[in-house]
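Anyone able to model this chain together with coenzyme A?
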Amino acid sequence: MNGVEIRAVAHYVPPRVLTNDEISRWVDTSDEWITERTGISTRHISDGENTSDLAVKVAKQLLDAAKLSPTELDLILVATTTGDYNSPTVSCIVQEAIGATNVPALDVNAACTGFIYGFSTAQKFLQSGGNGYKTVMVIGAEVLTKYSDWTDRGTCILFGDGAGGVILSASEKNTYGEKLHARGDKAITVNHQEVENPFSNKKRSLGHIAVDGQEVFKFAVKSVAENIAELMAHMNMSLDEVDYIIPHQANKRIIDGIAKKLKIDLSKFYMNIERFGNTSAASIPIALSEMFKNGILKKGNKVILAGFGGGLTWGSILLEI
Ligand code: COA
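re: yes, here you go
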């Protein structure tokens, strides 16, 4: 088998909660519209913490939970589209902050599919035989709101900030499979323009998110449903054998559409979009961490992680807990 074992999970979201009613004070929207069209009620937003601050908090929790010292890590991967700098990477900032002396560190940018690509990369390192990669930390961390255009009601309602992660080791017995894809398309972009951020005194020279909402919506429902079916065929399994699907949390109606297309009950999908909005590469590890912490996931459960987003990128992983 070429599986992985999850040795620890953790997540962190900034304390500031932004409600739909607050947003409707500065753009023409309403709690009713946002809830009905997206499933989002609140999201956590950073009022100064950067992406690495969130990632470092998760990394420290992960080491505590796994009872590992930082130098016992063999690799640190951070999936993010919103790194503090182009360089140093968030993973290098984490490496220094936790004292993981000389441990290699790499960022993965696949937008909202970032955690899937990061997890897949970790699995390849862990299966690389005698090269000594036995323990890998994978974090998804984003402060998307530093790129939000707070005058655009079509996008500023969607995104929140957060981070989540896992520590993985190789497992000979756990089932594992994956199917990843990309199709270059600018339906979701982050442009380089200066924007004001009403939640921070700092003026940041970053950019804003532009989303072709309807195109992305259609792409997500179709691609994710097909991708999950493709993964099941690849694994020679049926969805009846899968306990949970943990989808990227972008819009509740997208998840409804995927369930409908796959003809499976919505209750198989874990959802927390109501509280967090779309946290991009952080959404799947935050969900995974919540599910462990709430005792939902049990040893032996088979779980699908399904991501999609900018790039365009999409992909799914079948995992045995
Ligand atoms: N409040 C009120 N009205 C809004 C609004 C808001 N926050 N945002 C858009 N509208 C309006 C539009 O202006 C439009 O008005 P019009 O008919 O007068 O032109 C109307 O609502 C319908 O817009 P539309 O874009 O068709 O809405 P929608 O049902 O597709 O919902 C999104 C818009 C963005 C919520 C939805 O398309 C979506 O979630 N797409 C995926 C985006 C995403 O998640 N991207 C990241 C993926 S990783």
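DSSP finds nine helices and 13 strands in the chain.
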